[in-house]
Amino acid sequence: MKHFKPYTLILAALMMMAACSTDDYPENPLEIGNRLKFYATIGAPQQTRATGTTWEQGDAIGVYALISGTTLPEGIYHARENIKYTTATADGLFQAASEGIYFLDPADRIDFVAYYPYRETITNYSFPVNVADQSSPAAIDLLYSNNAVGADESNPLVNLNFNHMLSQLLFTITPGEGVSSLEGLTVTSGNLLVDGTFDLSSGTFTLGNTRQPVNLRLVHHDDGSVTASAILPPGQEMGTTPFFFTVNGMTFRFTMNNITLASATQYSYQLNLSTAGLTALNPNATITDWVEGNPGGEPIDLTPDEGEETPVTGTFLEESFASSQGDFTIYDVLLPEGGSYVWKWDNNGYMKASAYISGAKASESWLISPAIDLSSATGATLTFDHVINYADNMSNDQTLWISSNYSSGDPTSASWTPLTIPTYPVGNNWTFVSSGDIVIPAAFIGQANVHIAFKYVSNNEKAATWEIKNLLLSDGTPTDPGTDPGTTPVTPGLLFAGSDFEDWNAFLSSLNSFGLKNYAQQADGGMEGSKALSLIGDPLSGGNDYVFTATVPTTGSTLTGKSRIVFYLKGTSAKSLSINIYKGTTGYHVFNLGSYNQETVLDPTSSNNYTGNIDTGGDWMKVTLNISGLTDLATEAGKDMIALKIGRDAAYNLLLDNFTVE
């Protein structure tokens, strides 16, 4: 199965009415004259392989014969179930591998259920699906037919109309400016559901719970383009799962619109990779019934103001560890020799695990969340920041787990499921990185007693240090951004607490519940040797994105009686910045920087726009927002005050500093 085409199998009931000699084989049903054979075609008569253009020797289907008008399993016709039919040649003629299907009485009528690829063992008429390995599409492309009914000896041809039961993604990728070749390209997904079961009796598919990254199958073409494909279980939502395209040392990220994969459906995208960022020529996808033609549809160029993305809200658990351990508990399965703890809150504002006591020591310790109520949730996503130094085997020694039956005490008394951490730190420094989005498995959604645990293990050869902070478990429901008021006093002249980025905790406490995106970090190199906010989306920005939203301080709005907001900018970007200044009721005033290469006073405009690029020539440039005519600004503590936004799919390398009011 190579090219994923729709197809029809024609069941040729070639009844050999001339009886064979019963003296030769008196008990052998293979010699019964009215055995069935199957002739398979795909679309046009000369297209006969399930996903290619020809069948190959040894291809096999499984066929169930049913008394006409009945269903599996009650109606099986004389024990003729899961009968293997194979191709002996490439002409599409299928014959029984051993004992086949035949009419025992000329008056009998038979219905058929068939599937591909054949499995020797089918338990409870349930076909197991796992698409983690995409290297052989033929092995995972589940096909199914149940339309053929009422066959009898007088009807020599019975059409089996097969349908794809899974879904397919197809990316057509071309190199753009700054990307000379796609040689060495890899395409990997974030965590996707990869398993499930298909009920042959009802023709229905049930999603499993296993999530993991998937390596897409690549085909390189003579024109330099590449197609990347994946067959996936239907029913899963795709709006939060990124796909990573890595080539020539650069990684591009693309996230589909929020669609639910449908059975028998192919979703095609045309993507252009360039140093200015990834361009989706058809961001809404071309959806087909898994037929070839123009798999990417007509190219569609994204416009700069295409689709605003709204942050998510609905927090199930939030713990920064900035001031304490919070409600998390610690259970030490094995303490290191000479030590009294492994996990411990650090007054620098994070939880820290280490079993290095004058040398590495063996240990096992769990940091366990309080009970989390997901009974009313429709989905949940976990993120946190972490750093690991002196690492050995991080994916084994620093792991994340989830349970729905843990109560307290020893975690080994409960059942735990591992969660994949998409992004681990480098492992040899003290730089915090974001974990990436960790989607909570469907089995735990709707549960009222969910716990998440960080498990640390070490040995006498290696004992890493693991630090964790800024944990957030949210439901992903779109809503207006932010409700949590900042509580840190604001230094006179600053727009909000920490807006000079010297006091990082003060800055973070000024933000709404969505916090700060992981591509934004505190960095050296600010004005006059100070700290600054670094935006490096090179080229990993996932969309028209809220970098942060700061709220009105508890002491009142700093904008009252002011006429200007000023900040400073240094660096380059392939698209521009847009800023929202929020109103006291609903909505906001928009300021767009556009192409910014000289200092300018900006006036409000009607809508967000990211057209243009930024290049300050290596110097700090002043940006001034004219708010003198705005009389409806938010003043209530905790309400959104200002949001910084970046444009979709473009490379950013900027420093921002000193947001002040005048």
Automatic annotation (TrEMBL):
Residues 1-21 form the signal peptide. InterPro entries: Mfa-like_1 (IPR025049), Mfa-like_1_N (IPR042278). It holds the Pfam family Mfa_like_1. It comes from the Bacteria. CDD domains: BF2867_like_C (cd13121), BF2867_like_N (cd13120). PROSITE patterns: PROKAR_LIPOPROTEIN. Keywords: Signal. This is DUF5017 domain-containing protein. It comes from Proteiniphilum acetatigenes.
